[in-house]
Specification:
alpha/beta, Rossmann fold, trehalose O-mycolyltransferase activity, 11% strand, 10 strands, diacylglycerol O-acyltransferase activity
Length: 434
Amino acid sequence: MNDVSIVDGWLPISVCAVAGMLVVLALIGKISRRWIIVTAAAALAGAGLGLALVPVAEGPNGFDTVLDPIASAWICAAFAAIGAMIVALFRGGAKRRVLAGIAIPFVLFSAAFGMNAQFGQYPTIGSLSAAPVAERMPASVAAMQRNLAPKASATTSSDPGEETVHPANRGLVSKVTIPASESQFPARDAYVYLPPAALGPHPERMPVLIMLSGQPGGPENVVQAGALREVMDGWAEQDHGRAPIVVVPDQLGDPESNPMCVDSKLGNSATYLTVDVPNWIEANLGVRTGPENWGIGGFSQGGTCAIQLGSAHPEIFSAILDVSGQLEPSSGSRANTVKLGFGGSEESYSAALPLTLLEKNAPYKNTVAVFGSGSLDDRYGPRIDTVAEAARQAGMQVTRVVSPDTAHNWQTVQWVMRHSLEPILNHFGVGPGQ
């Protein structure tokens, strides 16, 4: 059951069909003119309430994005149906009350499925547990990776132990713990994708791409909703199994937290991502050294972090992937952001803005950047345009892409990763044409 889709397929279709049938059955039967008027008025009131809640859902305390028409329609339709069912509960006969009582949870589940289909954050039943399917890294693979690791190869035994049996055309996703030795940041477990060429008895050193989730969220979203293995395996197939090693650390500490990728009383997120995570990678994974082989990317809040840290640390990263990021780190209002993340200092806040960092560290002589957004994303799309142009003016080699018919969601991330990662791969010397 864990692999059953809740984005499309039989389950959401069945739930929606049952919800619709129950609503219809609760409405038909013995009716009067007064019943019709009251029920219609309740449905219209419900739809109106749903419509009024759309701006709330789009605000900083909701999804902080412009909902596409389908998502807005789900909200309005659900509230309309619930309005009609409330009338049936209080003004109907026994049979009608029973049907209405059963219908309401089905309507809510239908709306949840519909909204999730638009955002794509939970692709399967299993993904609701926030634990993506991750294979345990075989001891032989871990040993061989440590043998290749820049900071460990001189002291680690060269004997990889038993050879691991792993499909030659399939990468490996494993769950790992990255200690916060310097930052003491309360990070959750991370995930690592190893391409096929990094597996087997004779693994190659690969470039590395650090990928970050949005907020609320966690590393598991990049693996599940971002279809990490499938996407990266697709690129690896085009270059004899060679693709970047992808490390997905936790930049939040908690799904609802937003440390804004700076060091503050909210947690030393920046130090974790620029010191602890790179140190762990270089001690445990067979990666190529030097900024020309390292990149950082992310979605939404993670995209903001990617351009913040990528522009601030050209000595670590020379590739940036910003999917639907913001113009600035944000935790609600500007006043709240400055208070929580920057100790009330407007100067510190301004210094952490991507546009400030790009101007400060220009010119970038060997940095590639891919900026993506969905064609239906009227809020983040213009922001990405602004940051992309600033990056171009700062000397970065910029590619700006737009995912067709998607909004601020994981469908956009998948499209960008599947169709627009080539500039970064070419920069790394892997992928098509290498």
